[in-house]
């Protein structure tokens, strides 16, 4: 039985190659994914481009910056209504990728255009050079910057009372933990009022293997050995996968904050799919939040696979669900899903 269990959790894949890094003798890593295409911001785009974007440095010493997306329609002088704010955190297992990758740029562009929202995509510090909670610290620093900035894209066009935190994969984990921190400093974040969280295939873990991890042991996009390595590189030194940063269902830690989230009336949408080795982890977190009284919705588990941002143009499909969620959250007077 022991040999059978071991065989079920042994991967034939090199985890370092799977996440596009090379280990160095001093325990550091060299990232080898330099060929992922990047794109610059377009603060002065051609006339046919419907969304402006620009980069702003938040913390130069930590290389924390944001890419801000503003729908061109907001510049129409006849429009007096302000736009909701979506703060987005990219994926990459806390270890790879950046906010200027073309896939993340295009996704945020589409959100801004189709939902008519100001989108702030955050570039946070990566592990293992900066292990968790560094990324959580960076995104909170970004929220404080948004609160204080005099940038006209915010002061003229943002409705701070309609803020959502959104993330994909590791970014979904970051949105979750940023939300928990935000729930404990509601007054300090004013005028920002977080209304909810949107977690797309969030990256959670645990020591005990779940069924989907065993079933998709050698998944082509995210094999089990790769998730183990990502947690090893990103969690605090000496921590295992039952740390609260990885496993929200462990006793103590983040569980006590969920009661505050319930009192605030936030809503949470969690998306997942059966093609994701972490789907059972996501279901565990959904059940946890439902027990705590948050509205959680787990959608379309059968149509897609993990790594959806890298596997074709499905942005419109995802935005349909996201817009439906936002419509419900904003109430019957919100015909666009976000705007009054």
Task: Walk me through what this model shows.
The structure is a single chain. The chain has 340 residues and is α/β, with parallel strands linked by helices. 35% of the residues lie in helices and 18% in strands. The strands form 2 sheets. The protein has an 8-stranded mixed β-sheet, with helices on both faces. Strand 9, helix 11 and strand 10 form a beta-alpha-beta unit. Helix 3 packs across helix 12 and helix 6 crosses helix 10. The longest helix is centred in the last third of the chain and has 16 residues. The N terminus and C terminus are likely disordered. It comes from Acer negundo (Box elder). Belongs to the 'GDXG' lipolytic enzyme family. This is Alpha/beta hydrolase fold-3 domain-containing protein. One of its GO terms (molecular function) is hydrolase activity. InterPro entries: AB_hydrolase_3 (IPR013094), AB_hydrolase_fold (IPR029058), Carboxylest/Gibb_receptor (IPR050466).
